[in-house]
């Protein structure tokens, strides 16, 4: 990373290039960076998504990571990615985007395809466990080679804006996402902490999440982490533990963990 090309204000550090904004912010978390610190990179050379999938990171995309320092029970930590996802959607809506949805568990989509992805990673520090929320948004349309076979089509922010809305400045968009992610996360964390250790991780936000979750009451494919087809069924929403509830082709109700399965619309090829 070329640290001579770094600039910062109180809300956002901007780097010219970095391997991964998540890795960079995890390193700074170990060194004592505060809750709410955010890093944006103009390009990433080793961006990644869930299950270490590569994330194409050319110049012009929005690559942002936000540091969170939760004080929650371990069983409640799986709610962090959901709170962050809600925050990202609220930020994009405030910028003028319409018809957004969250594909369980971590993709931001529109009717035209995938707009972005969210990856939350934990890191141990001397101040306790921290979480880094990484967010990649397609500001402009990547080349066709960025799409992997079987994945959703790719769309971009310019195409997601409502008629009459103008493209935001990229740093303004990054600060808006940071602000909404922190607000949504902190509000959820206060509610779930008050409820106590017995509260499920999506306590207080599961209804909002289900209003946004894509393909609810629709036919979906169930895929393994290796993208092998495990079956098909109808998505009946997400439970308070973050599991996708799917009724399979035999009428059996499945509670799927995102560590072991993902969903695609039946028509996606």
The helix-and-strand class reads: alpha+beta
Number of E-type strands? 13
Q: Give the CATH H-level superfamily of the largest domain.
A: Bira Bifunctional Protein, Domain 2
Radius of gyration: 18 Å
Distance between the termini: 38 Å
CATH architecture of the largest domain: 2-Layer Sandwich
| Uncertain spans | none
Shape: globular
Spatial sequence of strands, sheet with the most strands: 1-2-3-4-8-7-6-5
Please trace the helix and strand order, writing H or E for each element: EEHEEHEEEEHHHEEEEE
Task: Estimate the strand proportion.
Answer: 25-35%
What kind of sheet is the major sheet?
Answer: 8 strands, mixed
The average pLDDT score comes to 90
Count of separate structural domains: 2
Protein name: Biotin--[acetyl-CoA-carboxylase] ligase
GO molecular function, one term: biotin--[biotin carboxyl-carrier protein] ligase activity
Enzyme class: ligase
Keywords: Ligase
């Amino acid at each position: 990373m070329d640290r001579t090309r770094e600039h910062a204000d109180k809300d956002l550090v901007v780097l010219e290039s970095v391997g991964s904004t998540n890795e960079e912010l995890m390193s700074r978390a170990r060194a004592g960076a505060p809750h709410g610190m955010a890093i944006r990179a103009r390009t990433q050379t080793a961006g990644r998504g869930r299950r270490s999938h590569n994330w194409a990171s050319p110049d012009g995309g929005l690559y942002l990571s936000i540091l969170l320092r939760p004080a929650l029970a371990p069983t409640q930590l799986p709610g962090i990615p959901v709170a962050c996802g809600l925050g990202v959607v609220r930020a994009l809506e405030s910028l003028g985007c319409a018809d957004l949805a969250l594909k369980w568990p971590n993709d931001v989509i529109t009717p035209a395809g995938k707009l972005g992805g969210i990856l939350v990673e934990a890191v141990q520090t001397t101040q306790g466990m921290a979480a880094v929320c990484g967010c990649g948004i397609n500001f402009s349309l990547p080349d066709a080679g960025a799409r992997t076979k079987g994945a959703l089509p790719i769309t971009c922010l310019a195409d997601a804006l409502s008629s009459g809305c103008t493209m935001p400045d990229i740093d303004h968009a990054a600060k808006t996402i940071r602000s909404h992610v922190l607000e949504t996360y902190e509000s959820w964390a206060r509610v779930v902490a008050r409820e106590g250790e017995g509260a499920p991780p999506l306590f207080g936000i599961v209804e909002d999440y289900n209003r946004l979750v894509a393909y609810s009451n629709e036919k979906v494919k169930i895929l393994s982490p290796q993208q092998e087809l495990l079956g098909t069924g109808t998505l009946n929403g997400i439970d308070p533990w973050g599991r996708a509830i799917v009724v399979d082709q035999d009428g059996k109700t499945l509670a799927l963990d995102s560590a072991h399965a993902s969903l695609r619309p039946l028509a996606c090829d």
